[in-house]
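Session log. Operator J.P. requested a structure for one protein chain; no other inputs attached. Running the standard single-chain path with token output.
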Amino acid sequence: MRNILGSEIDSAAAKLTDSRVHLHDYGKAEASEGRKMGHITQISRDTRA
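Structure written below.
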């Protein structure tokens, strides 16, 4: 999992090209520096954290 902060949310979806990666957008109206706007998760067969 990787947090998406502030204005990173604007370009995050465009960067996703792997079907194993999913963007969870929290739908917050305003982005500000350091504010958690969503997160990205990746599905993997590797169970090591």
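Operator note: Residues 2-42 form one domain.
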